[in-house]
Structure to design on (380 residues):
């Protein structure tokens, strides 16, 4: 497998880097950590105006998947707030893949212009890993659908223009066959958003749907085909849309602080920095492998699981090492005098465990690898 980038890919990367350098200012990073909203409208608009967003839409843009990988890898390494853009691009890919022509015309330009975000309403209070058993109902009433239910962890719901919503339309069918996906405007009457602040800094939301009425124009994919629509979204993620190199920014911040504070003289510190650098490199190679498999027409879903499990476990181990080495300074937060690496050590120690949960937990990903890669019997 040859991971070298073409001249066109390198030019794309240079343009992303230039925009990141210009728009991801210390104030933007500080706002991300203060509000817990990992999104930057300035960055999204700048990338979109330069044409870099449309090119990367999964399944649609001519830069998918290598430029999609480059875009999010650059944003992640820079510590930029990119979650809003990543979700929006993934769902743009789903609309392109299974949406009607009318939906493509109405929805896609709002996303590729960098203006509209999308939130994902899959998980519920009692169903996260076990999505096939979600309870939110959509019931036919004349020409309309009436949606009632509650979703949990609807990240970006407070900023998004659209929600992609997994509902149960036929409780008589087996769990996966009675589901329908909708995409509807977040300002549709009957939707309520309540903030959920996490230990990871990230703000997410609980969302409620009370007699929300939509027409057939909101059905994304086939009625009772919601599971297939969701699989399209998962297949686009493939481990190439960020989340697989979170240790790069941590290593940069910690190595700078260790040099300033003199900690770097310690042999233990030097050894751990080297191990962190090796793990980051392995995570990068695994991410590239996913992107290159997808680029050559292969299915990279399983590689996404492998990459994510390795990267987030390495990140969590590195964050714990850094906090241990920093001592009390590693417990101080941003804006507190004396905080190790300006507060990033505390942040990464709180943030890293949560990365092993969202986007599919490590246990679920291990099950995938065991069953689909190693051919072991099903866990249940
Ligand atoms: C910060 C954050 C942001 C999120 N954003 C979104 C979002 O935007 N949209 C959205 O829809 N969801 C989102 N999620 C939800 C996320 O996808 C779920 O939290 C995740 O899938 C786990 O589901 P759960 O929380 O219900 O835990 P559970 O599924 O109840 O799992 C609890 C524990 O049991 C383990 N477990 C469960 N089933 C199995 C099994 N079969 N084999 C082995 N172990 C198992 C899990 O690994 C976990 O350790 C977000 C979560 C977080 C924390």
């Amino acid at each position: 497998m040859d991971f070298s980038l073409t001249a066109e890919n390198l030019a794309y990367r240079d343009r992303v880097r230039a925009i990141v350098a210009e728009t991801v200012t210390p104030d933007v990073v500080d706002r991300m950590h203060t509000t817990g909203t990992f999104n930057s409208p300035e960055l999204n608009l700048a990338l979109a105006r330069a044409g870099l967003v449309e090119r990367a839409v999964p399944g649609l843009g001519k830069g998918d998947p290598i430029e999609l990988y480059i875009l999010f890898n650059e944003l992640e390494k820079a510590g930029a707030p990119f979650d809003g853009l990543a979700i929006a691009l993934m769902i743009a890919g789903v609309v392109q893949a299974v949406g009607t022509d009318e939906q493509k015309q109405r929805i896609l330009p709002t996303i590729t212009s960098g203006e509209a975000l999308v939130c994902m309403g899959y998980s519920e209070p009692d169903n996260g890993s076990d999505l096939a058993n979600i309870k939110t109902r959509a019931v036919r009433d004349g020409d309309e659908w009436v949606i009632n239910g509650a979703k949990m962890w609807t990240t970006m719901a407070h900023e998004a223009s659209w929600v992609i919503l997994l509902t149960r339309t036929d409780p008589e069918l087996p769990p996966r066959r009675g589901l329908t996906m909708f995409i509807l405007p977040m300002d549709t009457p009957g939707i309520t958003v309540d903030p959920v602040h996490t230990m990871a800094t990230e703000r997410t939301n609980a969302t409620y749907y009370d007699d929300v009425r939509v027409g057939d124009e909101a059905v994304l994919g086939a009625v009772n085909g919601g599971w297939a629509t969701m699989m399209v979204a998962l297949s686009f993620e493939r481990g190439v849309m960020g989340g697989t190199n979170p240790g790069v920014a941590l290593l940069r911040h910690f190595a700078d602080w260790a040099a300033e504070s003199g900690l770097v003289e310690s042999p233990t510190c030097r050894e751990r920095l080297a191990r962190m650098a090796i793990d980051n490199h392995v995570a990068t190679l695994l991410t590239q492998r996913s992107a290159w498999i997808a680029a050559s027409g292969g299915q990279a879903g399983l590689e996404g699981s492998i990459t994510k499990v390795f990267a987030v476990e390495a990140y969590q181990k590195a964050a714990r090492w850094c906090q241990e080495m920093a001592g009390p300074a590693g417990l101080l937060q941003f804006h507190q005098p004396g905080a190790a690496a300006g507060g990033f050590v505390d942040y990464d120690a709180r943030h890293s465990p949560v990365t092993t949960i969202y986007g599919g937990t490590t246990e679920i990903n291990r099950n995938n690898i065991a069953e689909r890669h190693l051919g072991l019997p099903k866990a249940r």
Notes: The pocket of flavin-adenine dinucleotide is lined by residues 120, 122-123, 128-130, 153-155, 198, 200, 202, 204, 354, 357-358, 360-361, 363-364, 367, 379-380 (CB under 6 Å). The beta strands are 118-121, 137-141, 144-151, 162-168, 179-185, 191-197, 203-214. The first strand starts at residue 118 and ends at 121.
